[in-house]
Amino acid sequence: MQPAVLTIAGSDSSGGAGIQADLKTFAAHGCYGTSVITALTAQNTTGVQDVFPSSPEFVKKQIQSVVEDIDITAIKTGMLFDTDNCRAVAQALKQHYCSSTTAVSGSRSAFPPTICDPVCVSTSGHTLLHPDSVDIMISELFPMSTLITPNTQEASLILSHRNLEPSTKIDSLESMLIAARNLMTLGSEAVLLKGGHVTAKMADVDRLADSLCSEFEGSGNKENENSSGSNKCQVQVFREGLFGENMEILQAGYGGDLASTELVVDILIEKERTTTVFARPRIGSSSTHGTGCTLSAAIAANMAMGKTLVDAVRSATIYTHIGIGTASKIGHGHGPLNHLHALYQASVPQRTPSNPYPFTTLLIERSRDIWKAYVEHDFVKQLGKGTLREVCFVHFLKQDYKYLKYYARAYAILAAKSTSFTSIGSATQTIINVIEEIDTHKAFCAQFGVTEEELERTEESRATTAYGAWLLDMGLQGDRAKLLIALLACLLGYGEVGLWLKKQALRPESGVILDGNKYLRWIEDYSGEAYQEAVKTGLEIIEAQAAADPPSPSRFEDWCEVWKRGTTLEKRFWDMGLNLEY
Amino acid sequence: MQPAVLTIAGSDSSGGAGIQADLKTFAAHGCYGTSVITALTAQNTTGVQDVFPSSPEFVKKQIQSVVEDIDITAIKTGMLFDTDNCRAVAQALKQHYCSSTTAVSGSRSAFPPTICDPVCVSTSGHTLLHPDSVDIMISELFPMSTLITPNTQEASLILSHRNLEPSTKIDSLESMLIAARNLMTLGSEAVLLKGGHVTAKMADVDRLADSLCSEFEGSGNKENENSSGSNKCQVQVFREGLFGENMEILQAGYGGDLASTELVVDILIEKERTTTVFARPRIGSSSTHGTGCTLSAAIAANMAMGKTLVDAVRSATIYTHIGIGTASKIGHGHGPLNHLHALYQASVPQRTPSNPYPFTTLLIERSRDIWKAYVEHDFVKQLGKGTLREVCFVHFLKQDYKYLKYYARAYAILAAKSTSFTSIGSATQTIINVIEEIDTHKAFCAQFGVTEEELERTEESRATTAYGAWLLDMGLQGDRAKLLIALLACLLGYGEVGLWLKKQALRPESGVILDGNKYLRWIEDYSGEAYQEAVKTGLEIIEAQAAADPPSPSRFEDWCEVWKRGTTLEKRFWDMGLNLEY
Fold first, then answer.
1. Interface test with B, best of A249, A293, A540, A561 (most B CBs within 10 A)
2. Which terminus has fewer CB within 10 Å in chain A: N or C?
């Protein structure tokens, strides 16, 4: 189930910022994205060419359409553009979430987690919020916000509107802290002041942490810094990608000089001055278009998934950081982040009611020709027509006897690789089935004049050894899944051959006959209920395995090769039978 | 590199259709999404509440901003709303792509692959294209389109505008074929007529295929139906999730009755009447909001990635089908598809310049406490201070001798599990290194009065057996990656201990000393260049492995458990040394 998240922001035609960045970020977090557009921009990586605002009435209508139909678990607001749209957003949200009489004032608790990114000016200098709207944003939106996420420029602008310090430029961690604390007086539950424009080193972070700790020491509230995410702490410092305690070997391997590394530092203040500092290395990159939109959207997505504010901010800063670090060059100016860095495309489609076997379907489709050559082999066709030379069938039976020993041993390896009693039991049951089959096999052989002694004495053909030893190799080389796939070509193939022959028997032109066919029992064995049940069980195991532990693209390719090899070895087994090869 | 795709369409606030569906679909295909908005809608799963159109000038401006900055590899158009916006789209695209004098007429070849989804009316009955705009869409947009993707209702409307058949309802595959052929006269390069509103069974598909084949037979152009995607064919039929040739076992396992299964059939016609039929089971679902938007966006994304039109349409129909089949209920009406069904979130972040070891960082962070208990064990601290009782160190040395045998054997299993000469060689080199170390080990033991004979005679402690046998079990149970992780706690831990002790020695208050410490050589061995180089190589192998074959969430959890267990067994090894346990 994807939690639904709402962004209320501008549209960036070039896709790197605004609701586009938000929707991509929501998708990257597995959330369902909805969006209310306050203004269209004609924009690209070089700047904002023009803005086309939505009417405040239409902003309200969009909000109503979304919140009245869909259960929204987190909201973020971005570019609101002007005073009327600011008001419209606040009114529509209050109207929906505070409709009970006790909550008319718009108390925070009535809203889903709401992240207000107070977007004012674009990186390229374009006004994204009219100056006279700042006061409305502060008075109307901040009080309903779980968190506001200004950068230092926005913080200066907001603080100056309320005659709060620092009036001068915010250019150090100390002035960031003062600014963040003063922003806390403006009504939001928490403040994240983003330090992307401030230069800092590890020594600055340590100094800030020490001064924060001594403050709390003074008030008898000291807690350890850099603790592992517990929310009891008053002061926490997260150093991301900076190789903390007991990570000397990683630092040594990386080889960088920690002390001189330029850092980006964000400061989060929650109620009662609980302070969290997020430090990470600065990445020299021009792919920073939409960084702020992305961060606030990621915080909203993480909160929608139930994370605490600190964990949500921490995850979001890491997500955004990697998005910058892995971005490809797009456009001619400040390009977008890579929003999809944490996603992989599944190699196997999800199971649906109409196809419970998507993985097996893919395997067969990927090696369709060799699979067909196996299932519709001349050996099989002649067997179906009853024209197969008995000597060939007997040769096949003898070699199959040898093969079944490998097959049973491979299942023993599978049992040894299993970690639950269910899977140990299921592999073991197959061994027992094979051993019981051996008696039938012997009786069947006797029917064709082959004694038990002759069976044992038979020289093993190359095809048998190749196939059998390959199964054992798969058991040695890989994990349980790989061995299951190696064993699949035999299990499925004989089942398919059985059903295919039975279907051919319905078409007179195929020449396949059942009545009077001396190989009828063989056909009935593999098309019969018992064997087909085993096939069904095997299919279920392999599909469940592929769904529970979806393979990466490279692992999927490896699995396809294993399947193809197994199918090929099966086909060669028929060749061997037909050509009486050793 | 993500190919950039542009959608020109309306905005759906509820996120299931319009540019929102398109952006999600682009993201699901790993494409970079850009979007030009022709109109905002206040919309949810129950219907369209209102529309707020963009001005045609602003539509043009958005298109210019995108195409002049970003290299667009495919375009899709959706809801265009009115005549002026239709014209604006056509003009802006022509202006950019046909600016050379030879191409003023707007010939198709000048454009990136362009998919025109001729959205006219919403499922809920809301007008999304003014009736008087249909002619403009036909005359201006169809000629620049690689493909148009009407449903049967839209096809009827479009055909009636040009007085083309069928004038009556399109309600059979035969009438669909006539409609699709007539749509081909309107200027697009290809037509995909979507049969979501037409009821069909497998017999209908077979009849259609037969009649198509006999047409081509008549004209001497017969090609096999249902061939494996070759583009040479004149007629192709894809049966998705319908268990084709040699898939009897899947059909048997599924158990459904193929003949009575209700199908959805789409018909694609390309130049010269090359016809492809896409059939799949109909899913009974109300999660169909935005199906058309999603399909055309998926076709555009697939073409952006270089697929042929047939392959792009085939992939897109499968993607959309599974999107319906796996949708969760969102909203109170016709809910959106699951756009993210083919994505999963990576458990390990991508490697970046500032953190080349994201996987190892995560492993350490996930078991931080036990890792710290291992690295900063009392045994280690006492060893660093030189206060460790010699008898404890000797006990440790003897057991380490036993352990190294297991360690070497585990690397032998690793070699046996490797498939390249590089990885076979690297594992084998480690075995050779261990065997050479054994001599140093013996000399070191002699220094503490332990003879070689005593070393061999020593009883193996439980901690040694547990750790050693566990390593071998990991080698038996899992694949190469799992064994590598099992071996990692030892390799990294001793390196970390060496560096940690050296760092402590710089802090007088730690009590750790190097000068005159009788265990100095041990410390120097593990903090020394040779061992640290081995650590660096090991880190590189494990990170490359995790990046090349990213683990699924369940596999990642399994790996974390393996790491934690290895770390715990290391910690218990120190316990054993300190407590002189057997």
1. A249
2. N
In a domain, A338, yes or no: no
Six token digits for residue B249: 């076992």
Residues of A in contact with B2 (CB under 8 A): 328, 330, 338, 340
| Number of domains present in the structure of chain A | 2
Query: Are residues A368 and A475 located together in one domain of the fold?
Result: yes
A384 and A321 in a common domain: no
- Same structural domain, B313 and B362: no
In a domain, B206, yes or no: yes
Q: A237 and A380: one domain? A: no
Residue A349 lies in a domain: no
Nearest CA in chain A to B332: A69
A301 and A447 co-located in one domain: no
Would A224 be classed as within a structural domain?
no
**A411–chain B nearest CA distance, Å:** 13
Mark yes or no for CB contact B280/A354 under 8 Å: yes
Indicate the SS3 state at residue A224: coil
CA distance A157 to B565: 53
Where residue A242 falls among pLDDT bands split at 50, 70, 90?
confident
pTM of the predicted model as reported, rounded to 2 decimal places: 0.90
Residue A19: give its domain's CATH number: 3.40.1190.20
Q: Mark yes or no for CB contact A478/B482 under 8 Å.
A: no
B/e letters for B182-203, b = 16+ CB within 10 Å, e = fewer, are: bbbebbbbbbbbbbbebebbbe
Task: Convert A241-295 into a string of H (helix), E (strand) and C (coil).
Answer: CCCCCCCHHHHHHHCCCHHHCCEEEEEEECHHHCEEEEEEECCCCCCCECHHHHH
Q: What is the dihedral of CA A177, A182, A185, A189, to 10 degrees?
A: -30
Inspect the interface and report whether the beta carbons of A343 and B339 lie closer than 8 Å: no
Torsion of CA A101, A104, A107, A111, to 10 degrees: 80
Give the separation between CA B158 and CA B154, rounded to whole angstroms.
6
Domain that holds residue A25: 4-98+110-212+232-326
Contact B479 A476 (CB under 8 A): no
Residues of chain A numbered 40-99 and touching chain B (CB < 8 Å): 40, 42-46, 49-50, 52, 54-55, 58, 61-66, 68-70
Q: Does B419 touch chain A (CB under 8 A)?
A: yes
The string of pLDDT tens digits covering residues A264-279 is 999 999 987 899 999 9
